[in-house]
Batch of 2 targets.
Target 1
Amino acid sequence: MLVKVINDELPNILQHLIEEFIKDPLLNEVVDIQKVTSSIENQRALLESIFSTYLKQEAFEEGKEELENICLSFYKDVDIPFAVIYKTLTNLKLRVIAHVINTLEIKNNDEILEIEHFIENLINLVSKVYIKKDIYKLSHVYPSKFEEYLLFRSHVAWIKNIVDAIKEDKMENFPLGDEKDCEFSNYLDYPESLMICMDANLCVVLHDLHRTLHKNTNTLYLFYTQGQYYQAYMALQNFIGHVTSFKKVVTELYFLAYNNLEENFYKLIELLLYQKTPLFLTIIDFHKVRSLNATYGQTTVNKLLHHIDTQIQEQVHYHEKNTLLIKGTTANYYMLSVDVSADKIERLNQQLYTLTNNTFEFNNKEIELQTTIVTLSLNGFVEKKRDDLTKMMLHLKAKHKHDDHSSYIHLPTEIQELNQWLDASYKDMNYLSQKLQKKEIDVVFQPLYDVQTGKIKVIEALARIKEKNKLISAGVFIDTLYEMDKVEVLDQIVLERLIEKKEFIVQVASTLFVNVSYKSLFDKKYRDSFNKFLKVFKGYSVIFELTEQRLVENIDTIQELHKLYGIKFAVDDFGTGYSSLKTVADLSDKNILQVLKMDGEIVQTIDSKKSTTKIMQVISTLSKELNLCSVAEYVETQDVLDRLKEMDVTYAQGYLLSKPHTIEELLVKKLNDTLNYNK
């Protein structure tokens, strides 16, 4: 009788539920009502089967396994939120009980309680199905790429174990424990974590979330193993939410740290120095990458360096408890070692040196790599800041560039010498500041000769500092000016000196090359001087030189300047691999680019490398096809000059032909025709 009453009324009860859902404005905002309606209608046959199974059993437990299989086969494919299913079954319970009481006039509370208990157990079984459905969400929280980052790594395996334990119903494998037992807590003292967690506010949030994560998992385990699946489902939802929040905070910390990686790296060093922690700072830098790019192609070299990078990272990974390796901007790598012995550092450095100084067979080519590896003990530099440390490391890199082993600087005499050098470098900055302020800057000019005729066609302006009776080359101080952010001041003074010498310049050559820093192009004061310079030199051929890298990086500014003033550019150090042929062709078509100056390292190796000859021939041919002039710098032997003639390079420049002179000296030379080009 009870079976018939319930089964007869089920369609009406379910129809009432559908009508309620359709009228629920909140539900309409959250879910697709058509899906909900379809789901409830589809549940009719299921619920009839479930109630029939239930009513045939003497107790719920006897039919539990069968009911669980029925629920799993249906609900695992239902695309409806659990909250909707829960509301359906809860309302169903109330309506079934009300209908049975009214129809059969049952007064025995035990029967009513049994029906209520049955539907609650049904809800519990459905909750288990949804746990197994939703547990897969955790599998996608941490993609495999996150494993390379320390603060993600510990939870990747932890979450996988949770998913597997629930998915396979093997709760003996569930990873119980509080946050203190988690590998994450151990990782927090590693150098990488110390750098990532320098934002105190976010790190407090991270610690709280980590504690909550482990509380959530323990609660989930407790409810699940006790068969309280509805409560376990709610605990799982909390856990998924906290895992997502935890991931978001860690991601934000990594983003903040890696967005200014080198700066934060040095901030960590300053912090640890203040705490008087024993530290070692190592610089790893590859030699002549531009020349390798020119010889073997940038794509090939980049692939090789990526391959070497993987090996370096693997080598350092074994020491991550005490070591942090980053890719730098002023060097290929910086490495910080904390609380380790000098012997351990030297062993690691030697391993890295052996790894990176070798000849590699790559893409059917033998490529020789060389690096400089220098380690500095920071114990004697407690009060030094980032700029100080960077300057010292770059100085050591240059000093030890030709060592055939890794170098370790730690003796008191070495530390004292380095401190003295640093003091002297700051005096140099003061010296340069005074020279710029007093405008004690002059220009000299190095001729570019027509390779075929031997005539001076172009002169290049080169900045010099006046010091009593001598002129100091820009190569000595240009890097320091960049560090001081004063290079645009130098460029501005150079324009002023060129204006002063204009009458001599136009008599010596038909074209003037002027070097310009990319920074100057964005400086207002320089742009004002630039406007004045162009007015004075109106009608005369002036070409501004930018390095290949800077020209490509500032292509929009280059086009804007050409549009405004009609000026033209030369690509300096061409062949280093920064620009594409399409970029060069486009600039040539627009008459913005006029000259390709070959990288000096390429010209200097023309006698020793066959590939260099091919590269120079390609650049010469490309120049002709695009109606550009080609220039070879650093021409220092007659053999090189003869090769340039054969390749039909347009201009040659170098000490074989002429060193830089004052404009007055060049004018006298030209008037007296004393430049014996072929002698």
Target 2
Amino acid sequence: MLKTLAIQDLDLDRAIGELMTSAERASVAGFAREAFQALTALLDEGPWRMPAHGAIMHRLQRLLPDVAFLADQACPAVGDQAAISRARQPEWGTQQAIARTGALAMVGRRQLQTAGADWGEAFLATLSQRRQAFASFCVDAEFVLKARVARQFRCGTGAIDPQQVTQLAALGVAADVLAGLSVTSEAIEIAPAAEATETLTIARALARYLGETGDHGGYLADFVFQASWMLLADAGKVPDAKEVAAAWLASRPDACSQILGLAVVPAIRDALRSGAFAQAAQVDAEAVKAWLAAVSSRRATRRAAPANDPVWSPPRSADAFVSSLQGTSLHDLHWRQVPVPGNGEHAWVAAVPPGRRKPLWQEAMALVDRTGRWPLITTLWSGSPGSTDVDELGEALFARSAYGFGASRDDLSPRSFIATSRSVDTQVFLDELAQLEYRADEPGQLQAWRDELASIGASLDGVEEAWASCGGDRLRFEHWLAAHEAAQDLADPERGRQPSFDPDNAWLILLPTAHGEDALAYLHWFGLERGSTDGFIALLRRWREQHGAVLFAHYGTMLEFVVQRPPLAFKDAMRLAREHLLAAPCTLVLPGMALRHYALGLVGHAEWFLHERP
């Protein structure tokens, strides 16, 4: 179970990600020293060298201290994580144990009913036969186990003292805020039957359900396994903990990271060091030896990044810039020369009346050949202070920190992302996004389609037969549904369109680039959490080249485009709609919009609105 498929992969993210996953599993199996040896190779020059930024760097910052603690080795500094000496590790471990067990005990939802009121031997043994009860079982188990964690580790459930809620109300704290605080101000109520149910019995009921139904269970199932395992291992019930670990890892092979995160608890640390969970992790000494040999054999090196574009910094003064706007409405705006942090570039930024943002943007667009700068509308979510310091404005607009959570790289400058975007294969990038797509199971998706038809008054005749004829091809069936609705005169393009966002403050930015897609390298969009920044830049470039779609506004989670050549044929619009769905699922998911309806809304339409949010 220690994987070595990506050892020689030129994609360092894939290679290092596989190495860290195997290091987690080796540590759980009792081979923390060997895992530590492999992980520290990432800090040395050579084929495993970890780039300075990226999601895998943040993962290593979390992982290495835990493995070092378990291996009884001093933890070297990594990224923003300071070194932890062996002398400091006991104190660090105690602090982390308190924080992590407390986090597991903390209640995050309002309890709507007494937990486990219908539990009993027969109920738990036949859970898979009453699938509709599984969700409530998980919620009840969460409350039951949180109460047990709080008791066993002598911590609270995150409860705020009810008296404090009263005091805050007297101070004028809003009722909706108080309602959120009150969620955790009440004691957990547990039915006697649930209180009498052993922790192992709860975990066994979950494991039996997952095994018999093939479901994955979701985050609540993960919590039930994690809390049960922790309670049993901490109580010294190692055989029971081994059973739970085996069931958990069979359901979620990547759960080793959650197991390892509890190595700071003394009893659990000792159990892990003893190798008690080697069988559950399916790792032995020979496997570890072979894994380390494979790790040391890596010869592949990361593909060299292309040279960055020259920094765009024209030698014109502020007066010369403003003079170039003579004869336009832009001339009368109050322009600020705002630095882009870290690379010597600057942008020109001006506050504009929100109601005039589109005409002013259009005027700036007409000057791109003269200025070489792409105009972009944005908003400041903190408001629109007229005296904003230019350095503060630069940090607010062009902060680089969020870019450090994407694909690994040493350079987070905008010019670096723009340069690497030119070598991105957009189809490969879309295929990677498709791997992240949530797909409802077949019964759930069929019901969703029926509900969509019913909501617009469409007939359900022929739906089952058409689905069968499509052989499981969902995109093909969406085409059938579109034709089915059109045949009943129910096709409405407006159903697939959303209104534009109206900010309460607006800013016009003239970026140091002549292409709108490059804006994603300067202002972070939340959708970049789904894939690489250079991949999204390349995708927007593809949309510009194919459809004349250019970025007009960027509001952090929302992007608005002006489109010169929108698709005119429905089949082309469906292909584009699918790309939009992969790039920004919230665009369709939040308003509950069907893919075919969204596609019909794209036909001949000169505006696009993409939305992706937490």
